[in-house]
Amino acid sequence: MIDTQEPLAVDAPTAKVAASDSRPWPRYLARMLDTIVLGAVVGMVLGIVMAFATEDGGARVFAAMEGVGGMLLSNVVSFVLAAVPLAFLLAFAQTPGKWLFGIRVRNPDGSRLGLWKALQREAWVLVRGVGFALPLVTMFTMISSYTDLKDDGVTAWDRALRCEVTHAPATLWWWMRAILGGLLVLCVSLWSYVDMFMPMARAAAG
């Protein structure tokens, strides 16, 4: 007896995104660079406003940022202050860090996220991605996000909001920009640590 029934179509298993395609480190460095630049700009503007609004407002702000506690506070403040301008740039243009590292965040149809969705994404990153930059908390959230990106090729917030992240090809031009961005993040980070420990060293020596 001849079997005339058509064979059932079997869907091929969906392949995970390769770790090299998701590029966790460029995304992390782009985020740090955006936070450093935009957090500093917004913080400077607020500092100037406070300096004009009160007699010693600016001095109190700078005094609060001194020492180990001040550095931890400045990290938290930088991430919070940078969230809104990051969302605006993500919705209507491109952030400095993402441009430097060749990263684009779009809807599945290729359109821009829009302001509301960009704000939601920044809120997700602030809470789920960096844990408000709080010590220990941020370590666990970043490890979790890194694992998601390495294993599944997508972060929790991009999966929930249906955002697609694409990377520019790793050409010579890309490597030049990526190295520049990485060096900027490294230099600012080292300067922050030196600025934090130098007053303590002077006090110990004196």
Largest sheet: 2 strands, antiparallel
**Sheet/helix structural class:** mainly alpha
Query: Radius of gyration from the CA trace?
Result: 22 Å
Q: What is the chain-wise order of helices and strands?
A: HHHHHEHHHEH
Strand content: under 5%
- Number of beta strands: 2
Description:
The chain has 206 residues and is mainly alpha-helical. The protein contains 9 helices and 2 strands. A two-stranded antiparallel sheet has the order 1-2. Helix 2 runs antiparallel to helix 3 and helix 4 runs antiparallel to helix 6. The N terminus is likely disordered.
Which helices and strands, and how do they pair?
Elements: H1 19-22, H2 24-53, H3 57-64, H4 67-92, H5 96-100, E1 103-106, H6 115-129, H7 137-152, H8 156-161, E2 164-167, H9 172-205
Antiparallel strand pairs: 1-2
Give a short overview.
The chain is mainly alpha-helical and 206 residues long.
List the main descriptive attributes of the protein structure presented here:
206 residues; mainly alpha; two-stranded antiparallel ribbon; 9 helices; disordered N terminus
